[in-house]
Design goal:
By secondary structure, the chain is α+β, with helices and mostly antiparallel strands. Strand 14, helix 6 and strand 15 form a beta-alpha-beta unit. Helices cover 29% and strands 25% of the residues. It contains 9 helices and 18 strands. The radius of gyration is 21 Å and the shape is globular. The strands form 4 sheets. Strands 1-18-17-7-8-6-12-11-2-3 form a 10-stranded mixed β-sheet, sandwiched between helices. Strands 13-14-15-16 form a 4-stranded mixed β-sheet. It has a two-stranded antiparallel sheet with strand order 4-9. It binds adenosine-3'-5'-diphosphate and magnesium ion (2 copies). One magnesium ion (MG) binds next to strand 14. Adenosine-3'-5'-diphosphate (A3P) binds next to helix 4 and strand 14.
Amino acid sequence: SKRKFSGDHTTDKGESFDRKIFPVAHSSRYHGSSPVYKQPIEINSYSIDSDRRVWFDNRELKYYYRATGTDLSAGYDKFIQRDESQLEHLDTLLDALTDARSKHTDPKLTTSQFVTWRGIMTKLLCTPYSRNEPWELRVSRHKDTIFIEEQATADKKEKERQASVRQQLMCYWGYKFETLSTVSKPPKDGVDDQELADRILDGADTNVQYCVAVKTTLGKNSLIMGAEVDCSEGAKCEKNPLSRYVELKTSRLVQNPNQERNFERYKLLKFWAQSFLVGVPKVTVGFRDDDGQIVKVEDFATLNIPRLVRGKSGSWDPSVCLNFANQVLDWIADNVVANDPTLTYSIKWNQPWRELTMEYTGHDHVFLTKRFLDGETS
Ligand code: A3P
Ligand code: MG
Ligand code: MG
């Protein structure tokens, strides 16, 4: 299967690029001490409004206020979903990076070996335990920083197209729980009764987001990630904002051993990985029944989640996730060497779930913005 590329398909150094393979072993192969994961630091934050306009302020930050009302289906007719056919690549994260570089005096805080979305890192962390969820990444290297974006797989697009009415409703439940659990101002000085009444009937608008950019290090790989934050517990703490953020989740109420296993094996793994990566200390879970009624709300301290599953049969281990992701980042850094933002590589994880593959994709799917590249030289 060795393919040599020529002409357009050479790196900027004129070398040919062979397809690269990263064998994915059984999860037990990644046991052992974990690479150090540094406490993430917030380097910027921004709001995206209902028209997808970006504002470098806190206008869309929501504040936690325990859910009132239990019906997650209420307001479904007012559900506004972001048009995902408008690919946004890393655009807002790149803008946030340019903005951060203009605000911070220490260039170390705003430079890293990798720049990507948190959701991509979550997928990497969970891969040793997920042998049926394909993903595809697109990678470019520029000034020794490797940028990683996600490329929607054909499989994912097909699933979305076929999403049943029931699946769409269940997707709404997740967002409705956010509507039900947050208010627009810190609740310390009292909450507006009208706002509390309204949120029970309100819908949700997935265009609206509050995002942060964080800097951290996994092993020897420094990393800047963009992530959506669901809400803050009380006013934003300017000194250490991450310490007050809360991730909101919904999950099926656990009533039998099968549901318990599903919750611990799959849900808690994803909850932990997603929040751990950006230093969000708390995950608040709304447990719902099959009719979309919240039955109870429970808080999980992110750092405690691994302890809840430790030693159970068929369970997951955070050090496996971190070792695996660290090795993948090393592999990407070793193989994506050409510093040229107009060249891309594609990395795929798919059937038969035995290896990651990396292919050189030349000038196809270039995703770093001119705006970002221009900002770097000025
Ligand atoms: P739940 O996770 O509570 O079901 P997030 O929790 O990351 O803030 O995302 C909010 C909601 O978006 C999710 O709520 C879910 O409804 C939807 N969502 C997020 N990622 C998804 C995915 N990969 N597939 C389907 N729905 C997703
Ligand atoms: Mg969210
Ligand atoms: Mg959430």
